[in-house]
Here is the input.
Amino acid sequence: MLPRLLTSALLFSFVAFASAVPNIRILIEGDDYCNDQSILRIRQMIKEAKTLAQSAIDTLYRPNVEKSSGFVALFGPNANPKDIADKHFAPVNILPDSPAFVVTVKRLTENDLTFTCPPYGDPKDNKARMSTRNWVDGDGHDQRNNLIRIFPNSFEYDVPDSKGSHKVDTLPLQKAVEAVIAKTWFDEKAVPMAFTLVHEVQHADVIIGAENHCLDVAFIDDKGKTVKAYGLQQIQKKITNEEKVKNAQNYAWFAFLTLAQPELFTDDCQGNPGPIPHAAGLQEPLLVQDGIASRAAEDTCKYIHGDFLNIVDTDGEF
Ligand SMILES: [Zn+2]
Here is the structure.
């Protein structure tokens, strides 16, 4: 038998844990219901989001990661890697592998979070991939809800063909990682659902806590237009270091790159080697951060030789 003190400690931690974990479910009836096919994709998305989060956590707990070029470029020189791991990636693990179903989003509580699947025709569907709604966003008791709305553009995208275009499923995570390594990426429309889910989790207060809530940070472009920093170049160069740790998309890119370009976060890739020459056929180089002088690692930090992946900026809404 367990000593009494230990038993009550276990009981206490169970109770504390149980009340903190939200009921995360999938809507299967009524407006915006998810069909069987979507449910399978959502399960896969959650599994892959956990893979992304775990890769991010493993990387962030590595010694000296905060000095690596990749970390500095995505989060700035003063961010705390363990803090980022604990507050922004560990919570992804509370997502259930197979969420239970719910038949209506009415009369749910502050502690519920529901995945819904609005169809084509929804006002947001032509650009948005997903959208997160928190309890505090709604007014009136009928309007309050915690939702992650998964739009059709998360599941599939248009590929042009001789007859116009046809729909293709967005990429599974592994396919996207392989495409990056093979340098055939990046059709931004094909972005894995799990990438977007890691982004949405940063908006979802019931998962990460309101104190860790992230935004879609915007900047003013050359034409005076307000643009949200989603693209890989934008999240490094167009927003400040303080904004980087508040921008949901920086977390999605970080997690993805720890799988696809892990060398960016190693000891061999510490500091900034200076401007990267533009490689033929590529646009802007990946991961340039001004003003941080350092040694240039010779052979192991691929991107300093121009042997890097260039990912162009994405559009669409996250
Ligand atoms: Zn967002």
Observations:
- Strands lie at 23-27, 100-102, 112-116, 130-133, 147-150, 156-161, 164-169, 218-220, 226-228.
